[in-house]
Amino acid sequence: MRVLLLSSAFLFLISAILLVRYLIMTVHTKNLSQELKEQYYSASSLPLITEALEVDIALPRVSYSPVPTITTKSLLGLAATQIPITNQPRNTPEPAMLDSFVQLYKTNRDVVGWLKSSAIPELDFPVTHRDNVFYLTHDFYGRKSASGTVFLDQACLILPRSENLILHGHNMKNGTMFGKLKNFMDETTFKKDPIMSYTTLYQQEQYVPFAVSLISVDPKDYNYLPLISPDFKTDEKREAYINQLTAYSVYSLPIDVLLGDELLTLATCHGDEDSERLVIGLRKVRFYENADELAENIREKMIVH
Fold first, then answer.
1. pTM for this one?
2. Do 163 and 262 contact (CB within 8 A), yes or no?
3. Which pLDDT score, from 0 to 100, does residue 79 have?
4. What CATH number does residue 222 fall under?
5. CA distance 40 to 127
6. For the chain: N or C, fewer Cβ within 10 A?
7. CA-based angle 70:73:77, to the nearest 5?
8. Over the stretch 48-62, which tens digit does the pLDDT of each residue have?
């Protein structure tokens, strides 16, 4: 009996320690998020970019040296498949960096963008770009963190831009990173404002969703879809990718996707199986379109499956 009591007490102590550590991590992650938002949104008071760069801040990397393959098996199974990198770095004129990124870039030169959703306030944070492993377990400052940081897939190029920018993030139970992305499967939340903004270092862009999909990265499953498709070798493969993603969507959305549209894909783990993913497929709002009108059209014509 004494051994049983001691074992129970030990297990309780371990559980309590883990719970406290989780709560501390949650508070730390939320405080960090608020700190980064203050830096980003207060940037209007910063000097112009031409002045800021006088402090000997080098321009950001716009592409990465290729490696033999992209390893998508990670500690938490975040990525999808193994895809060889075939894109070679190309020389592209460097545009001016937006003022809002100057301070963030001084802090971390891996920063490449900022993702924001009005419908889900927690989706409002910087995006980094390195490999597909580091930011699974590190925060924006490079410190160890189970929450990680939302990052652009290693295979994607910034300049010139890949056809499909793929963002990965943990589905955190505390709601940080992509922990609230599942709220887009709630019709009421989705209808609040389906439009999302993704601001690169150089310009702000708006994106409209064409699919909110539950897919698998296991080829044996009926809803298998390889996520890592930054550039499509043929128009047919691009069309097949979009059609598959749309077929697995929990909504039918009145949004078309044309050949020249730039794509944005948000991916996170979902459900109990390691192979399950929640994927939001978006395309860039065209220059002649009105984002508010697109959102209203979605509210009026979307069908919930």
1. 0.79
2. yes
3. 42
4. 2.40.260.10
5. 12
6. N
7. 130
8. 333 333 333 344 443
